[in-house]
Amino acid sequence: MGFHAPYKIAHLTAEHGQKKANLPFSSVLVLGFLGGAFISLGYLLDIRVIASLPEEWGTFSTLIGASVFPVGLILIIIAGGELLTGNMMAVSMAFLSKRISVGKLLKNWFWITVFNFIGALFVAYFFGQVAELTAHGPYLEKTVAIAGGKLDESFLASLVSAIGCNWLVGLAVWLAYGAEDIGGKILAIWFPIMAFVAIGFQHVVANMFVIPAAIFSGYYSWQDFIGNFIPVFIGNAIGGSVFVSMFYWIAYRGTFEQGAGRESKRKQGSSKTGIRRQGVNKVGLRRQGNE
Q1: What is the pLDDT of residues 59-88, one digit of tens each?
Q2: Helix (H, G, I), strand (E, B), or coil: what is residue 188?
Q3: Please, which of 131, 162, 237, 260 could form a disulfide with 232 given CB 3.0 to 4.6 Å?
Q4: Averaged over 202-215, what is the pLDDT?
Q5: Cα 251 to the chain's mean position, in Å?
Q6: The CATH number of 6-290 is which of 1.20.1080.10, 3.90.180.10, 3.30.565.10, 3.30.450.20?
């Protein structure tokens, strides 16, 4: 399995972030919806797998659920999708490397948040309620228990938990950019995502699924959801943009500056070559006129 060196991954991440920030609105709409839906399907799979496992299994059942959850990000990276937490890392790297403006960064985060939320609600309502996959029995109990655990955390605890979450999610995306084939990308995604789920960190888009799924079944309120959304969003933003993008940008800033210097010299050289060619053409024209 081929892979890139870390400094090269930094450049690839910046390129991906620039492309994400410049996607047409129709692509943002569709890919953002898919990103929210895919993460929610991974969470739904997690719940369906572990809900009926014996309590005696303890945290081993959590590990089993965490091992199937990564299917969501695998679908996003390989099949195609836009995920807020991944963009908090990649688009930030594009901004830090001066490829995009802060306005484009915030615009991307805003619209991906909106469409991730719609995709997550779609799965929570139609698969959770209409298809009754989280609406009764042990599946409802597990959904409510997970949602309750998220909501019971304090503002500070939720924020710090979210930092840890997107440190790992951002690294999963980072490693996926570093892999050259599908198998490598799957392995790169799998372990960091499994780790964040097994630890119990808070993920803003995953919470867009599990908390509304509990709300649709008559538990908790949208006010509770918003109270969780704010600290988790902030923490995820810090985890992705600071603990991954900024740290690696600082580490490999020199390679970005060298690349910018080479690009500037190349453009200057091309400009000078063009001027010389124009001069040669003018001399030729004069000679033809004299003849």
Answers
A1: 999 999 999 999 999 999 999 999 999 999
A2: helix
A3: 162
A4: 98
A5: 21
A6: 1.20.1080.10
